[in-house]
């Protein structure tokens, strides 16, 4: 009775929170790029973007703090088997994440409060710790997840933790490729989502420099990260092939061990057999070990009592396909942008490009969620692979269903409040008017120092 609602609640809250992660570690970088350009080149429009993006970042940081706090309580309430038995090890990355969170909160406050109060470059450098702390916090959470996939750094006696090696726990075997994969995904999500917002504005006829620059800065970052993500994703898949054979068998929808394994596009597992997929002959073996004769262990190599169900295998396989498929679609869009910039030093003017950019952010979020499903569901039925089954980690006390309903209501309220806050910001900005051209120094938080008077505070209030 407890397992289903506990899993559903954890899946929902993680799926909600992970959307906010890219805006802490990557969106703030876009903000700093805009501010750097504004100070260095005397670009008032870039400064206006930076200030407005900082306000959005502040709202999303607050929302992330709420959803992240709920997650921390859930670990203790819903999964006492995990925290009670392995908390001494599993808690280490979260303790580090807490330090990064407080560091990020401090500098977010300084940066936002500093508009209009600090000199240009002082204000810029006060914001640099924000994305660095966001990256550190993200890596810490990924370290905890990687530890569940490849537990390390613990000494067990009679099934209990007798000693812990913190560095081995944190820098476990799955940490490096999972962390890099997540960081690149974060930059893609933030870049494409923000670019999509300004693409919508351009489609509606707002062809001013404010919207063009608002598209170009984030899209350039996302486009640069996309080919790197394809390469890192390939490395990560090979690592999963070597280190997590059961998960890899689910990814490949492979019921039996063998060589010359095809890459199955789509399809599901029904009664232990592949159905409805499109096979690409020997491609899975070739991609895994650079040879068609590479042997891939199938689900038949997993002991029956810990073998994942067919529906979970199908979910992992389809999620992986969605993630990879979207990745290549975004790569094609990035190449279109790169070719246009190389030839004309401008982004494509085609309305089709703008339409695709407008939906690219949604696709990037879907790919992020699909990747998370792949790594989380792909570990089932284990919570800590080889050490703790999910059914043994869940709480046995009380009825989790009311807690699930309450959590859904809380998150619905948080989501509604977030949308309303962002809409209020948008209305306030519209009240000040959208810049039609270069703008003026007086219309932005501060301008590059052109007179001694403008050198002092970050200029007026808006």
Explain briefly what this protein structure is.
The chain has 462 residues and is mainly alpha-helical.
Describe this structure in words.
- Helix 1 packs across helix 8 (175-203) and helix 8 (175-203) runs antiparallel to helix 13 (351-377).
- This protein is 69% helix and 6% strand.
- It is mainly alpha-helical.
- A hairpin with a 2-residue loop joins strand 4 (268-270) and strand 5.
- The longest helix is centred in the first third of the chain and has 35 residues, at 44-78.
List the SSEs and their pairings.
Layout: H1 3-25, H2 27-41, H3 44-78, H4 80-114, H5 120-127, H6 129-149, E1 154-157, E2 160-164, H7 166-170, H8 175-203, H9 209-243, H10 245-251, E3 263-265, E4 268-270, E5 273-275, E6 278-280, H11 283-289, H12 310-344, H13 351-377, E7 382-384, E8 388-389, H14 390-393, H15 400-432
Antiparallel strand pairs: 1-2, 3-6, 4-5, 7-8
Helix pairs in contact: 1-3, 1-8, 1-15, 2-3, 2-5, 3-4, 3-15, 4-5, 4-6, 6-8, 8-9, 8-13, 9-10, 9-12, 10-12, 12-13
């Amino acid at each position: 009775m407890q397992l289903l609602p506990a899993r559903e609640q954890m899946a929902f809250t993680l799926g909600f929170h992970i959307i906010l992660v890219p805006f802490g570690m990557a969106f703030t970088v876009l903000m700093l790029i805009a501010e750097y350009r504004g100070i260095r080149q005397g670009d008032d429009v870039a400064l206006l973007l930076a200030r407005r993006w900082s306000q959005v970042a502040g709202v999303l940081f607050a929302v992330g703090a709420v959803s992240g706090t709920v997650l921390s309580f859930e670990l203790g309430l819903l999964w006492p088997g995990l925290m009670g038995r392995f908390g001494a090890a599993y808690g280490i990355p979260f303790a580090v994440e807490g330090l990064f969170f407080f560091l990020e909160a401090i500098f977010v406050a300084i940066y936002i409060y500093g508009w209009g109060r600090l000199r240009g470059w002082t204000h810029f450098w006060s914001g640099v710790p924000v994305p660095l702390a966001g990256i550190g916090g993200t890596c810490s959470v990924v370290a905890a997840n990687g530890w569940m996939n490849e537990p390390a750094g613990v000494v067990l006696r009679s099934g209990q933790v007798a000693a812990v090696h913190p560095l081995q726990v944190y820098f476990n075997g799955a940490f490096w490729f999972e962390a890099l994969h997540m960081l690149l995904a974060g930059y893609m999500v933030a870049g494409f989502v923000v670019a999509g917002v300004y693409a919508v504005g351009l489609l509606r006829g707002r062809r001013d420099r404010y919207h063009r620059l608002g598209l170009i800065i984030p899209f350039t970052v996302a486009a640069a990260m996309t080919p790197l993500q394809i390469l890192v994703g390939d490395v990560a898949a090979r690592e999963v092939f070597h280190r997590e054979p059961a998960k890899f068998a689910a990814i490949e929808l492979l019921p039996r061990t063998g060589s010359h394994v095809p890459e199955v596009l789509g399809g599901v597992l029904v009664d232990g057999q592949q159905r409805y997929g499109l096979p690409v002959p020997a491609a899975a073996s070739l991609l895994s070990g650079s040879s068609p004769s590479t042997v891939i262990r199938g689900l038949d190599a997993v002991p029956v009592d810990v073998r994942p169900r067919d529906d979970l295998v199908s979910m992992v396989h389809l999620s992986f396909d969605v993630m990879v498929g979207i990745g290549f679609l975004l790569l094609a869009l990035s190449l279109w942008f790169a070719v246009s910039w190389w030839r004309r030093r401008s982004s494509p003017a085609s309305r089709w490009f703008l339409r695709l950019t407008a939906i690219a952010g949604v696709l990037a979020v879907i790919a992020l969620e699909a990747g998370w499903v792949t790594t989380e569901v792909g570990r089932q039925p284990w919570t800590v692979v080889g050490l703790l089954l999910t059914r043994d980690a869940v709480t046995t006390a009380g009825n989790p269903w009311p807690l699930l309903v309450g959590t859904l209501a809380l998150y619905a309220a948080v989501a509604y409040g977030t949308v309303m806050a962002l809409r209020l910001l948008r209305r306030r900005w519209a009240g000040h008017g959208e810049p039609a051209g270069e703008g003026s120094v007086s219309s932005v938080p501060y301008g590059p120092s052109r007179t001694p008077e403008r050198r002092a505070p970050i200029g007026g209030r808006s």
